[in-house]
Design a protein that fits this description.
By secondary structure, the protein is mainly alpha-helical. The protein is built from 9 helices and no strands. The chain has helices at about 10-30, 40-45, 50-55, 60-80, 95-105, 105-115, 120-140, 150-165, 175-195.
């Protein structure tokens, strides 16, 4: 069974093959939606045979999840790129804006992997990773607060859903404006949760 995400294999040949397969999939998604990409096309783009593909991944979805792992890690880190108290509503973390610029530049790829409504391999992985990171930080900062799971779910759903709508043209904003709006909304989620829980 192929890995869900890149496993950092110590075998350089395995790492190189998986890197080529990820790159081939992303290149294919530049041209067409993921559901119209085939294993043969990806294998050909990576310069390997179908049998080699299946040595590494069960199917295209497993490869797609692996191909999304890096951008998901960067997105989660961008939303938490601060030390101590989070910056105010007018100062979103700089890496967030930079990440959105990069995503916009490769919009066809990410639109293929993040479907409308926040689904697809990118949406599912992003939601899961962001929810867990938010939950871990909430528990570390305010361990006695109730409802942290709901707050983490709201954070993950908000970011994933807004990103999907932006990529699919349901909302219009520059990367900088989108970063500012997302940041304000995320701060509002946390503030509302504290008020609801009775936390000063």
């Amino acid at each position: 069974m192929g890995p869900a995400v890149t496993d950092g294999s110590a075998d350089p040949r395995t790492a190189r093959t998986r890197a080529r397969l990820r790159a081939a999939l992303l290149a294919a998604c530049e041209e067409r939606p993921l559901d119209r990409v085939g294993v043969a096309q990806v294998a050909r783009g990576a310069g390997v045979g179908r049998a080699t593909f299946y040595l590494h991944y069960d199917d295209l979805r497993a490869l797609a999840v692996d191909a999304c792992a890096e951008i998901v890690t960067r997105a989660v880190d961008a939303l938490h790129a601060w030390d101590g108290a989070p910056p105010g509503p007018d100062a979103p973390p700089a890496p967030l804006g930079a990440l959105l610029v990069e995503i916009e530049a490769r919009a066809p790829v990410y639109r293929s992997l993040l479907t409308e409504g926040g689904g697809g391999p990118l949406g599912e992985l992003l939601h899961a990773r962001l929810r867990q990171r938010s939950l871990d930080e909430l528990r570390a900062r305010r361990p006695a607060d109730p409802g942290q799971d709901l707050t983490a779910s709201a954070v993950a759903a908000l970011f994933t859903g807004v990103l999907a709508d932006w990529l699919h043209g349901r909302t219009s904003a520059t990367p900088a404006l989108l970063a500012a709006r997302i940041w304000r909304m995320l701060l509002a989620v946390h503030a509302t949760a504290r008020l609801t829980d009775g936390t000063p």
